[in-house]
Structure formats: C-alpha cells, structure tokens
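Fold Annotation — chain and its backbone
Encoding — discrete vocabulary of local shapes
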Amino acid sequence: MKKYINIVFVFVIIISCKKLSKQSDSQNTKPIITENKKFMEFKEFGNVEITKEIFPVSWLINTYDNENIVISKKDKEYQKKFEQIDYFKNLKEGIKTNDGKLLLFIKKDSLLNLSKIDSLNIIDSTIINEQNKIYYLKIIANRDDGKTEYPIDIYRLDMVLYNKGIPQKNINLYTEIDFPYLTKQNICYLDKYGQVTCSEFIIEEAKVTFKGRKNQDAKKIFNIN
C-alpha cells in the first residue's frame, strides 16, 4: 500500500512540474508590454509624402544662386518636394528636461557619445500603460573632435520608450548632420499605427543624393502587443 501511495505521489509531482514548465514557457513568449486600450495610437510626426514621393538617385541644385549654373525644371521640382518633407524646423520647442538617466541613455548613441548636448526637450508623449510611456525628444548638439575644420551640428528627433521611469529603447525619426561641406539627413514619417518610413539623403554644394528608403515597425521594436 505504501509503495502504491509513493508511486502516485511521484506521478503527481511530475505532472505539476510539467504544468509549471509550460506556464513559464508561455510567460517567456509574451510581449514585455501590453497596452490597456483596444487600439493604441502613436503621435504622428513628419510629412506623409515621405511614404509616397519617389526621388531619383540624385538631382542638381544651385546652393549659392550662381547665375552661371542652370538647373532643369525637373530638378527644381525634386528640390521643392525634398524641402517640403523636411519638417524639423517646424517642430515645437517642447519642455527642457534635465533627466540624468535620459542623458546617459542618449549618450550611448555613437553619434552623440562625444557630442555636446545644447538642448534636450520633450515635445510630446504617448502613454501605453501605467508603467510604460513613449517620449518624443528634440535634440540639438554639436561635435568638435578636431577631425573637421568646423564643429559638426546635429539635429535629431527620437522616440524613447520608458519602462518604470527608465529609458529602455529608442527609434530615430529625424537626423541632420551638418558637416563643413555636406549635410546628411535621415527624414522619417511616423504614422498612428507605429509604422516608420525613413528616407536618407546627402546634400552637397551642387547636388542632392537619395540613398534609399527603409521601413520599421515601432510596435515590434518596442515589443508592444
């Protein structure tokens, strides 16, 4: 009888362990963030035309309005469309933040690591749930590493995921890097569903080069279900 009871006891333990293992595996596959609402809307940033416009590999420009340089009508049209999707100058100033954790977080970025942060402002936010928020940051910085004739000016818009008051992940929505003789830009459009469409450009004295377009899903990057 005792032998029978021992066998049953061991059998129950094995089944319980299997149930706990399954529960643990199930928990590990769940997203780290579950939103409260049926549908979470992101703040829209940028110009939706970024998702529609098709730019050529490059087009000519006349930076200094030189009378001896003739620009075709087609190139002028491309330049006009390009200027329309560049929205950084239209962003609101926002509220200055002195969050030390945030400053350390953005300094992990290779571009900002050795840069002087001139301004770090929160221009908007999205609440996911009680523990998780997204902040939209307007960053202006400059970098003088002695490798260029003049300091490099940097303009950025980042969305940063906060979990329990600590910055965890970020997605860049806009970057402009002004070198002495050229400018690099990454211009993105974020829609309310969290889809991010980015186009990259290099602006030189005589031409603009379109480097390509890429798409990202903010919900997947931030692991939001």
Notes: The chain has a mean pLDDT of 86. The helical segments are 2-28, 73-85, 100-106, 218-221. The first helix runs from residue 2 to 28.
